[in-house]
Amino acid sequence: MSQSSASAKASEEYFSLGDILSTQEKLPCKVEMPIHRLGYLDLSSDDDTLRPGTKLELPFWLAGSLCSRRRHIVSVELPRAYRENYRQVFKADPNVVDLHKLGPYFYGFGSHLLSFNHPQASDVANSLVRVGTLCLRHDGYLMSRSVTSGWVPYV
Question: What CATH number has the domain bearing residue 116?
Fold first, then answer.
Protein backbone atom coordinates (compact mmCIF):
# COMPACT_ATOMS: atom_id res chain seq x y z
CA MET A 1 0.00 0.00 0.00
CA SER A 2 1.45 3.35 -0.99
CA GLN A 3 1.84 6.14 1.51
CA SER A 4 -0.85 8.26 -0.17
CA SER A 5 -3.40 5.42 -0.15
CA ALA A 6 -2.54 4.65 3.48
CA SER A 7 -3.12 8.27 4.45
CA ALA A 8 -6.38 8.34 2.45
CA LYS A 9 -7.58 5.23 4.30
CA ALA A 10 -6.60 6.78 7.65
CA SER A 11 -8.48 9.94 6.68
CA GLU A 12 -11.59 7.92 5.76
CA GLU A 13 -11.48 6.13 9.10
CA TYR A 14 -10.91 9.40 10.95
CA PHE A 15 -14.23 10.73 9.68
CA SER A 16 -16.11 7.42 9.91
CA LEU A 17 -18.82 7.60 12.55
CA GLY A 18 -18.85 3.79 12.85
CA ASP A 19 -15.10 3.76 13.43
CA ILE A 20 -15.33 6.51 16.04
CA LEU A 21 -18.10 4.68 17.89
CA SER A 22 -16.33 1.32 17.72
CA THR A 23 -13.20 2.80 19.33
CA GLN A 24 -15.34 4.01 22.25
CA GLU A 25 -15.97 0.37 23.27
CA LYS A 26 -14.27 -0.50 26.55
CA LEU A 27 -11.52 -3.04 27.13
CA PRO A 28 -10.54 -4.79 30.35
CA CYS A 29 -7.05 -3.55 31.25
CA LYS A 30 -4.52 -4.08 34.01
CA VAL A 31 -2.20 -1.28 35.09
CA GLU A 32 1.47 -2.32 34.79
CA MET A 33 3.16 0.79 36.23
CA PRO A 34 2.00 3.68 38.42
CA ILE A 35 -0.03 6.31 36.59
CA HIS A 36 -0.10 9.57 38.52
CA ARG A 37 -3.17 11.85 38.60
CA LEU A 38 -5.50 9.27 37.02
CA GLY A 39 -6.63 7.60 40.23
CA TYR A 40 -10.15 8.91 39.67
CA LEU A 41 -10.54 6.29 36.92
CA ASP A 42 -10.62 3.60 39.62
CA LEU A 43 -13.89 4.28 41.43
CA SER A 44 -13.01 1.80 44.20
CA SER A 45 -10.00 3.84 45.33
CA ASP A 46 -9.48 7.29 46.82
CA ASP A 47 -5.83 7.33 45.72
CA ASP A 48 -4.66 9.93 43.18
CA THR A 49 -2.44 7.31 41.49
CA LEU A 50 -3.40 4.16 39.62
CA ARG A 51 -1.26 1.41 41.14
CA PRO A 52 0.20 -1.61 39.29
CA GLY A 53 -2.23 -4.53 39.32
CA THR A 54 -5.32 -2.31 39.26
CA LYS A 55 -7.94 -3.66 36.88
CA LEU A 56 -10.24 -1.28 35.06
CA GLU A 57 -12.02 -0.81 31.77
CA LEU A 58 -10.69 1.79 29.36
CA PRO A 59 -11.99 2.89 25.96
CA PHE A 60 -10.09 1.35 23.05
CA TRP A 61 -8.55 4.65 21.97
CA LEU A 62 -7.04 5.23 25.42
CA ALA A 63 -5.92 1.64 25.90
CA GLY A 64 -4.24 1.80 22.48
CA SER A 65 -2.19 4.80 23.60
CA LEU A 66 -1.22 3.20 26.91
CA CYS A 67 -0.38 -0.22 25.46
CA SER A 68 1.84 0.19 22.44
CA ARG A 69 5.11 -1.28 21.20
CA ARG A 70 7.05 1.63 22.71
CA ARG A 71 5.32 1.74 26.08
CA HIS A 72 3.53 -0.85 28.09
CA ILE A 73 1.75 1.16 30.77
CA VAL A 74 -1.30 -1.13 30.78
CA SER A 75 -1.85 -4.64 29.52
CA VAL A 76 -5.02 -5.34 27.56
CA GLU A 77 -7.17 -8.42 27.99
CA LEU A 78 -9.66 -9.68 25.44
CA PRO A 79 -13.25 -8.61 26.09
CA ARG A 80 -15.65 -11.41 27.04
CA ALA A 81 -17.22 -11.68 23.57
CA TYR A 82 -13.85 -12.45 21.94
CA ARG A 83 -12.56 -15.01 24.45
CA GLU A 84 -12.22 -18.75 23.90
CA ASN A 85 -15.60 -19.74 25.39
CA TYR A 86 -17.48 -17.44 22.99
CA ARG A 87 -15.31 -18.54 20.07
CA GLN A 88 -16.39 -22.12 20.81
CA VAL A 89 -20.06 -21.09 20.70
CA PHE A 90 -19.44 -19.22 17.44
CA LYS A 91 -17.74 -22.27 16.00
CA ALA A 92 -20.81 -24.41 16.78
CA ASP A 93 -23.47 -21.98 15.51
CA PRO A 94 -22.97 -18.20 15.46
CA ASN A 95 -26.63 -17.60 14.65
CA VAL A 96 -27.71 -18.47 18.21
CA VAL A 97 -25.83 -15.46 19.61
CA ASP A 98 -27.23 -11.93 19.44
CA LEU A 99 -24.10 -10.13 18.24
CA HIS A 100 -25.71 -6.73 18.74
CA LYS A 101 -26.10 -7.45 22.46
CA LEU A 102 -22.40 -8.36 22.64
CA GLY A 103 -21.57 -5.02 21.13
CA PRO A 104 -23.16 -3.04 18.33
CA TYR A 105 -19.78 -2.82 16.59
CA PHE A 106 -18.80 -6.47 17.05
CA TYR A 107 -16.86 -6.79 13.78
CA GLY A 108 -15.29 -3.33 13.71
CA PHE A 109 -14.23 -3.47 17.34
CA GLY A 110 -12.94 -7.02 16.86
CA SER A 111 -10.78 -5.92 13.96
CA HIS A 112 -9.41 -3.05 16.07
CA LEU A 113 -8.46 -5.55 18.79
CA LEU A 114 -6.04 -7.22 16.38
CA SER A 115 -3.75 -4.17 16.61
CA PHE A 116 -2.72 -5.19 20.15
CA ASN A 117 -0.87 -8.31 18.93
CA HIS A 118 -2.56 -10.37 21.62
CA PRO A 119 -1.43 -14.05 21.71
CA GLN A 120 -4.94 -15.08 20.63
CA ALA A 121 -5.20 -12.46 17.85
CA SER A 122 -5.11 -15.00 15.02
CA ASP A 123 -7.87 -17.02 16.70
CA VAL A 124 -9.97 -13.87 17.08
CA ALA A 125 -9.39 -12.95 13.41
CA ASN A 126 -10.38 -16.44 12.24
CA SER A 127 -13.47 -16.34 14.43
CA LEU A 128 -14.55 -12.95 13.04
CA VAL A 129 -14.23 -14.21 9.47
CA ARG A 130 -16.07 -17.44 10.25
CA VAL A 131 -18.91 -15.72 12.14
CA GLY A 132 -19.32 -13.11 9.41
CA THR A 133 -19.36 -15.72 6.66
CA LEU A 134 -21.85 -17.99 8.40
CA CYS A 135 -24.16 -15.13 9.38
CA LEU A 136 -24.17 -13.80 5.81
CA ARG A 137 -24.94 -17.27 4.49
CA HIS A 138 -27.78 -17.62 7.00
CA ASP A 139 -29.21 -14.19 6.14
CA GLY A 140 -28.92 -14.96 2.42
CA TYR A 141 -30.75 -18.23 2.95
CA LEU A 142 -33.55 -16.47 4.83
CA MET A 143 -33.88 -13.86 2.09
CA SER A 144 -34.01 -16.51 -0.64
CA ARG A 145 -36.69 -18.40 1.29
CA SER A 146 -38.76 -15.24 1.71
CA VAL A 147 -38.56 -14.49 -2.02
CA THR A 148 -39.59 -18.00 -3.07
CA SER A 149 -42.42 -18.16 -0.53
CA GLY A 150 -43.85 -14.77 -1.48
CA TRP A 151 -43.17 -13.33 1.98
CA VAL A 152 -41.56 -9.90 1.86
CA PRO A 153 -39.79 -8.67 5.01
CA TYR A 154 -40.85 -5.31 6.39
CA VAL A 155 -38.01 -2.87 5.83
Answer: 1.20.58.2050
